[in-house]
Amino acid sequence: MLRDVMGKTFQLLGYTIQYGCIAHCAFEYLGGIVMCSGPSMEPTIQNSDIVFSENLSRHFYCIQKGDIVIAKSPNDPKSNVCKRVIGLEGDKVCTSSPSDLLKRHCYVPKGHVWLEGDNLRNSTDSRCYGAVPYGLIRGRICFKIWPLNDFGFLRASPNGHRFLDD
């Protein structure tokens, strides 16, 4: 009797570990569902929108300008930020706010990206904390899941003029 109970317990434990490893790999390498909070990506992503984030792009270095990514916050490693990639390593980016009369520029260092929210007037982004190491990127947002009336691929940046081609 005790032998049967121990056998079933170890069998259940084995299955739990196997499925836990599969789930971990799926969420770490394939992607997952994310709820975005805060106003920094409005109007593209509203507060409490639910999106699907895929993680393969970051592993294969396929992140491009214009992509919306989930990254670890450079200011608070316990939280994530949702921002648009404005510049990749070597790109010239505008570092000033839209209201500044004098425009300042810099180049994105090797191994970094420049992230900004679509809501430039209400976003804490690379203009505040500088270029973000590529290693902090967790995934690329593919499409919006919720609300259902907004289901689908995300629209282009309302700040397309911020992309410099120098």
Automatic annotation (TrEMBL):
Coiled coil spans? none
Q: What keywords would UniProt list here?
A: Hydrolase, Membrane, Mitochondrion, Mitochondrion inner membrane, Protease
Report the enzyme's class at the first EC level: hydrolase
Highest taxon of source:
Eukaryota
- EC id: 3.4.21.-
Report the subcellular localization: Mitochondrion inner membrane
> What Pfam families does its record include?
Peptidase_S26 (PF10502)
Primary localization? mitochondrion
Domain annotation Peptidase S26: ranges:
21-95, 105-146
For this record, the Gene Ontology CC terms, alphabetical, are: mitochondrial inner membrane peptidase complex
Q: Name one GO molecular function term.
A: serine-type endopeptidase activity
Q: Name one GO biological process term.
A: protein processing involved in protein targeting to mitochondrion
Active site residues of this protein: S40, K83
Q: Which NCBIfam families match?
A: sigpep_I_bact
The similarity comment for this entry is:
Belongs to the peptidase S26 family. IMP1 subfamily.
> What do we know about how this protein assembles, alone or with others?
Heterodimer of 2 subunits, IMMPL1 and IMMPL2.
The protein depicted here goes by the name: Mitochondrial inner membrane protease subunit
